[in-house]
Structure formats: structure tokens, C-alpha cells
Amino acid sequence: MFQKITILIILIFSLSGCHMKSQIVEFKNFQELNNNPGSENYEIIEIVGKKAEVSDFFGRTESIKIAIDTTTATVLIRAYEIKGNSSDISGTYIADLLGSTIKKRRVSGRVLKDGTAWETNAYNNWIINGDTAKHKYIDPFSKKIIDTPHTFQVSEKDPEKWLAKFKELYQKAQYIYIFMRFYYFKLDNKWYFMEANLEGLPDNFKQQYPPKEDSDVRMVELENLAPVWYHKGFKDRDTSLIKMVDYESTYFEKVDQGLNQYGFSAGWWYLEIPMPLGDTIRIKRYSNYEDPELKLYKVPKEYGGREDVLFIVQKPEELFPEQVGGMYAIRPRDPNQPQRRYKKIVYKTDSEGNETIDRSRSIETEEYKQWKKDKK
Predict the structure, then answer these.
(1) Where are the domains of the chain?
(2) What is the pTM of this model?
(3) Of 94, 212, 260, 324, which has the highest C-beta tally within 10 A?
């Protein structure tokens, strides 16, 4: 962890524009997401509490973590309790496009692109059709269910007949998932299992028969839109979604090894999030100096997403209890309010070199003008 976020001490003093604790200016209007009042037109709601980390249960990178269900127009979230294993926190959450939680279940396994909740021994279709029962995989030769794939012995020992059946399933299957040498075939909404362990199979068998996961896609993983650089000293920093205002160090460790000097700092980040109607959401967040450890997501318009809904995921850190987890949504207080203010935006450069909207020259939409008039 320290290797990842340790930075040259010279950066701490030259790039940040930050304040050490004795110099910090009070930011009373900046609050953590779990206790943030929002703004006039936008509220902040909790989807997953600060004691949870949004991730796959077992840290498997190929499992979907946050995705849009394109069939039901809902958002899928996986989360687990940071310490312990509380059934009140850990589980799979389904939220609508405004972040309101619709369902939650304590299920394990990986979520595949077709919506199947997959495990090595069984699967369920809770996400697809609400069926919470665990279903076993089927042996394509005997048509019987397989209790434990790891110890299952196939009855067909003839390599030619085995390969013929394999090719038949491979050609017909709508979805093929591979785990180690285990092949799982989805055919007519049932899953079949074959283990590629017979003698005589070529070493490049997986290359000849790769997974087939793009013909039955229901779950589309959301892209993290958080900027790479936050600090004011970086010319390429992107402030369109979130902007660093200041940083207050409360922990600092210096290592001096002659020419090799470096340090580690952790403290409070003060950040601003500009919203489409002109409001500014002000948040504070405890994290290391290098990065506030936030991920930002928006549902694309083609899947029903709104311009004025932003999902925020916080990564926790056990070394610093103040660095909490959780997932939150910034959303309109009135779902019927306009999603944007301007139909033509003109930018200007502020005193810090950031591009900001020039409101005197930007042109507002007629929808926004009428909405503003009706509010008076």
C-alpha cells in the first residue's frame, strides 16, 4: 500500500497548493458524503453505507462490480462489509437510475454479462427473472445434474466422441464461460458443464475455443469517469466533473535516505462538484495525498441515464479509519427539473487556470428559462 501511494517529498510542497494543519482555512460548507445536505437543486442519497466497500466479494477482476442492466434499466452494485460479514451490508444491490435501492440480496459468485450469478458448483437467475433458487449444471452426455464439478468424472472416455459433443455445444451455446479448464455452456436457458482435461487435447485448446460472452450481453459495466490528476500543479487535470479546492494534511511521515527523500501524507481533501443547473456540491474526503480514492460514474444516455445524476464510490482504508467507504448518488431534488441549463456554453479561464462557464455569454435552454420562471 505504501509503495503505491508513497510520493517524492518535493511534490508534497511544490504541486499541491495544499495547507498543512496549522495553515488550513476552515471549510465549513464542505461535508462528507454521508452527512452532506447537497444544494438547492440537488440532494445526496446513500446507496451503500460508509462501512462497506463496493467491489466483487472475492476481488475477482473479471466479475462485474458496477453495471447497468440494459433490460431493466437499473444499476447493479456489489458490496461487502469492510470488517465482519454483516448480512445487513454485504450483498448485491439493484438501484434505479436515480440511485434508489429496489432490491438487495446476499448472494455470492460472479455476475456474468448475461446477468447469471455464477459459481463453480451452481448458478441462479435472480437478476434475470427473480428466481433465487440455485441450479446445478448438467452433464451433456447423461443429461443428469452434476453435484460437484471439481470431482465429477465424465462417462465418455473416447476423445473423439468427447470432442464431437464439445464442438456441438460450443457451436450452439449462446454464452460460454471458462474458469481454469472448466467450460460452462448456456443453451436454451440451461447451463451445461464440460472439463477440458482429456489426454490428447492440444496445449492451445483454450485459444482454439475461447469464451463466448458478447452475443448475450445484458450487463454493461460502467466506466469510471474520475480524473487521473487532481492537484492544481498538473496542467492536464480534468475539472469538468470534480475539482480539488484544497488539502489538509493530518498525518505525515518523512523518510530521508540521503538523495532518496520521500514522504507519505494523509488528510482531508476539499472538493467541488459542479452540477448542470449551476449548483456546486462541496464535499470533504479523507485520503492519501496522491488521490482522494473516489470513483465517479454516470449511466450513459443510450441506457436511460441522466446528465444530472452522478454516482460516487469511496474506497476505504483500514490504516486510516477516517477514510470510509460507501456509495452515494447526487441527484435532482425534483426529477422533473431540466437536466441541463445551457444549450450553448462559452468558457473562460479563471484565476487558477481552470476552464469555467462564462454565464454572461452562454445561452440558456428555453426549458430551463420556463422552469426557473415557474419556480418564482
Answers:
(1) 2-47+223-338, 117-216, 341-376
(2) 0.85
(3) 324
